[in-house]
Amino acid sequence: xxxxxxxxxxxxxxxxxxxxxxxxxxxxxxxxxxxxxxxxxxxxxxxxxxxxxxxxxxxxxxxxxxxxxxxxxxxxxxxxxxxxxxxxxxxxxxxxxxxxxxxxxxxxxxxxxxxxxxxxxxxxxxxxxxxxxxxxxxxxxxxxxxxxxxxxxxxxxxxxxxxxxxxxxxxxxxxxxxxxxxxxxxxxxxxxxxxxxxxxxxxxxxxxxxxxxxxxxxxxxxxxxxxxxxxxxxxxxxxxxxxxxxxxxxxxxxxxxxxxxxxxxxxxxxxxxxxxxxxxxxxxxxxxxxxxxxxxxxxxxxxxxxxxxxxxxxxxxxxxxxxxxxxxxxxxxxxxxxxxxxxxxxxxxxxxxxxxxxxxxxxxxxxxxxxxxxxxxxxxxxxxxxxxxxxxxxxxxxxxxxxxxxxxxxxxxxxxxxxxxxxxxxxxxxxxxxxxxxxxxxxxxxxxxxxxxxxxxxxxxxxxxxxxxxxxxxxxxxxxxxxxxxxxxxxxxxxxxxxxxxxxxxxxxxxxxxxxxxxxxxxxxxxxxxxxxxxxxxxxxxxxxxxxxxxxxxxxxxxxxx
Length: 562
Prior knowledge:
The chain is globular, with a radius of gyration of 26 Å. 6% of the residues lie in helices and 56% in strands. The chain contains 3 helices and 28 strands.
């Protein structure tokens, strides 16, 4: 069950979009270069649902909601995302291109404008430089104050229900057109929608979140499909320093255990005084397909999270989910996950999915590890580091199949993938980095491995630029591959642009009747423009020539924050 989630098809833009593409290229060429960025290196620590990933950087590293994130996967190219939520040591990033799924350990950068950091630093310096004014004799004798109370114990904080109502969010349009040398490669997709958050709805301290979009698709058979998807529509209350109990009702991604997917129902959670959390949820799970079909799979779930202390440097979470498919008992799933992120030293994250089967199940019996993802990450003071990731995947024996391509009983019984990968990056000197990747995998039929070694130079010719040259190779049971890629891009506060080229040679040695080597060329141009008005514009154009066939793809994203 070979799994390469970073490999993308390619295709061609319609002529009607060429004018827009030219305008975007001109904008990219005109980017101002007087604004600098602080680049914060990051790694993908886990993969979520609905085009979201978790990264190993957070508020303590200077991140804020709305920051732009760039991902550089093995396989080349630059992909973008936006920070949706931030914790002290991690953040959730929404991917702009939903067909791109970065593997755990994928490297990237979050781009933080130095203006923000400079303002914060200036504010600290100004506060420190202010002379202490003379104060008249204190009239308040602090009656009732004792040393065991906080200094501001009697100050009245502003509660959520006392804050003014506020609407924020974004509206977006995403389009992709694909055209190839063969008609069966042509397709087009258009998506338009909005993601809005209304804080303190009705003055009760609760929040309303809505995410809805209209999708339109065409495929090779000229079939058209249009769907109105409501990805999120929920009301949440509590879960802050004033209310240790949190509840959410509607359609939403489960808060306590995101692994249990999107829910049409109710979730309740509570945080104890020692920081431990527990909760439960009940409701229906919409099918994660183009229609989000509801009222088919019912679920009930519960979880408990243990934390090591106020900093939560170590957390261990256990959750159990029971599902019913069209009224029939279906999945018994136990998820165990942990995260160790101390202020210094090694970071460890992991999750294990255990499916329990009975005699009523048709194919599997007993207990089976359906998924496992274990990651170890180490960073050094100069910014160098490495990460090691182990991943195991196989199909569960369940009635619900909305997330999977239709599969046979033999595939459920036999298919599996185990992959061990390591990535490293070493700063030889300021602005010069060596990076590499090595991995090995095995599935039910084949085994193989891959390796790459690259050299990156920052600020080459132009400030805030990045030049990279990488060689790679891979071997499997039937084929080996070798090649190289080169890219050059500019990344600064108003946007970015990048041009990328890759050449690879594929040699099949297990089939005597097919001894011809196949050459592949891939070219990708991408860019983005971030306007002070809140508009974001990004695009990518890619072409891939495979032997005598070729494809083009043109993608365009427009976003407006409000």
